Structure formats: C-alpha cells, structure tokens
Amino acid sequence: MAGTIVANTINTDTGVFSTQNAYMGIAKAWVNFLGSTGAIQSSFNVSSVTRNAISDYTINFGVAFSDANYVAAGMGASGNQRNLAFYNGTLNTGNSTSGLTASSCRIAFVSTGVYDSDPSTVVFFHA
C-alpha cells in the first residue's frame, strides 16, 4: 500500500516542528531570479527579491529561520560568463548592508566589477 502524507507541522513528544526543518542537510530556501529586475523565476521559501542597486539584492524568506546562523551559496552569470564570485554580507562597493538576518539576506554578485546577473541563483542551508 502506498500513500502520501502532507502536513505543515508535525507534533512529536518533544514539541512541534515545521516539516521544512524536519531534515538536516537539505536546502531551507532557494531562488532563481533575474538580477536585472529581481523577478523570481523559481523558488522555495523565498517570498521576494528586492533589487536595491546594480548587483545588490535583498532576498526575503517566506518563513523566517530561527536565527541568522545559516549558510548561503550562489552562482551568477554575466553574458556567457557563469563563474562570478558570490559574496554574502558587505558589498565591495562600500555600501552598508543588513547582511544576514533570520528573515532576509542581502547579497552581491561581483567579479572584476558589479553585474546584474541573469540568471542569479542562491541556496540557503540552516540546521
């Protein structure tokens, strides 16, 4: 017999936890967006992407993490180049950023300059 169980929360003898956080080592959020506009192409647990300036984005989570102790990794492209470095937190342009918070992450894609990366992809892992 096969079946499917769908639940937003699961009650356990130690409390309630979100099914999103039920497994260690899986992505808790990810997004594929157009850097030129911030338009989301596809995502999981990302409610919006704000384009603050060229190569300066704030990714907002649909469900906030319990804290800001998460890992972000990403990849961007400029033209045919798909090897731009990913930096999290303070931008190389000297702008002050909010960096990592439980509800959002401000990032920049940079190489020898700043670029609006199309597409931009970022994944987030949290314990």
Can you give a write-up of this model?
The chain is mostly beta strands and 127 residues long. The chain has one domain (24-125). It contains no helices and ten strands. The chain has strands at residues 9-12, 15-18, 27-33, 40-44, 46-53, 56-61, 71-76, 85-88, 104-110, 120-125. The strands form three sheets. A four-stranded antiparallel sheet has the order 4-3-10-7, with no helix packed on it. Strands 5-6-9-8 form a four-stranded antiparallel sheet, with no helix packed on it. The chain has a two-stranded antiparallel sheet with strand order 1-2.
Low-confidence stretches: 82-97
Overall pLDDT level: 74
> Element order, helices and strands?
EEEEEEEEEE
Termini gap: 33 Å
Structural class: mainly beta
The overall number of domains is: 1
Lateral arrangement of strands in the main beta sheet? 4-3-10-7
Number of strands: 10
The helix count comes to: 0
Question: How much is the radius of gyration in Å?
Answer: 16 Å
**Which descriptor suits the 3D outline?**
elongated
| Share in helix | under 10%
Q: How many strands, what sense, and barrel or not for the largest sheet?
A: 4 strands, antiparallel
| Range of strand content | 35-45%
